[in-house]
């Protein structure tokens, strides 16, 4: 997810401070959700060994299913970000999502 460890004294309100035996030992600064989507897309590119835009249609559909399971489309501009990474239109991403949902629902 791309979190960063920081000293507990530097923690902001949105950071997560971890304690051990009652003593604050470290804080974790989590990235914004949009940054997390970028990290997820980069990890998927590493997994496939090529830019996502170069994948075949079936693999792109699989990537969209993976991203949906990870909540990528709950992020503002998530569909646009994914469409750009895949080298397809937003309409195509929505088609992939509809296809995945239809097959999951048994239609």
List the helices and strands and how they pair.
Blueprint: E1 4-6, E2 16-20, E3 23-29, H1 33-48, H2 57-69, H3 78-86, H4 90-104
Antiparallel strand pairs: 1-3, 2-3
Provide an overview of this structure.
By secondary structure, the chain is of the alpha+beta class. The chain contains 4 helices and 3 strands. It has helices at residues 33-48, 57-69, 78-86, 90-104; strands at residues 4-6, 16-20, 23-29. A 3-stranded antiparallel beta sheet has the order 1-3-2, with no helix packed on it. A hairpin with a 2-residue loop joins strand 2 and strand 3. The mean pLDDT is 87.
Looking at this protein, list some descriptive labels.
three-stranded antiparallel sheet, 3 strands, 4 helices, 107 residues, alpha+beta
Short summary of the structure?
By secondary structure, this protein is α+β, with helices and mostly antiparallel strands. Helices cover 50% and strands 14% of the residues.
